Amino acid sequence: MSRAKANQHLYLARLLIKSWQRDREQQLVPARVLDQAYAPGVREHLILAYGHFLNHVLDPTGAASGGDTPRSCDDLPPQSAGKSVPGEIREFRRLEQEGWLAPLLAPLPDIGAAGSRGARTPGMLVASSDGADWPGPEQAEGWSRRLASIFERMNDSLDEC
C-alpha cells in the first residue's frame, strides 16, 4: 500500500510539473510567480511520495500502515532493540544530510508581503522574493526522476529479500 501511495504522489507531482512547464512557456505570468505558485504543491507531493516509500522500506508488506507519513528519516519510528537499520534508510539519511534530497526537504523561502519589492504587473500581485531561491520546474523534474529511479532500484532489492 505504501509503495502505491508513493507512486500516486509521484504521478501527481509530474502532472503539476508538466502544467508548470506549460505555463512558463506561455509567459503570461512571470516565471518567479509561477515558481512560487507551483513549487509548494509539487514539493509536497514529492515529499509525500518519499515518506510513503520510507514506510515501504520499513514494511514492504504494508501490514503496519497507519499514522502520519514521515517527511524524512528523522520522522521514522525507532528501530526495535537488536534490529539493524536497513541499508536503504542509511542511504536516504545520507542523501537528506548532504545529497540531492537536502534541497527538496529544506523549507521553501517565505514569500513575504506581495509587491513589496520588484516591479508590479498591472492587476497582478508580485511576490517580494526575487525567485532565485525557489526551485523551478527543471529542478522539480530532476527530483521526481531521481525519486522514481531510487524507488525502482530499492524496490528491486526489497523484492529479493
Distance between the termini: 18 Å
Please indicate the count of domains: 1
Strand elements, count: 0
State the helical fraction. Answer: 55-70%
Order of helices and strands: HHHHH
Number of helices: 5
Largest sheet: none
Radius of gyration: 18 Å
Beta strand %: under 5%
The rough form would be described as elongated
Describe this structure in words.
The chain has 5 helices and no strands. It is mainly α and 161 residues long. α2 runs parallel beside α5. The model is unreliable at 113-129 (pLDDT under 50). The chain has helices spanning 2-26, 31-58, 87-98, 101-105, 137-160. The protein is elongated. It has one domain (2-71, 87-110, 133-160).
Protein topology:
Blueprint: H1 2-26, H2 31-58, H3 87-98, H4 101-105, H5 137-160
Can you give keywords for this protein?
mainly alpha; about 160 residues
Short description:
By secondary structure, this protein is mainly alpha-helical. The protein is 58% helix and 0% strand.
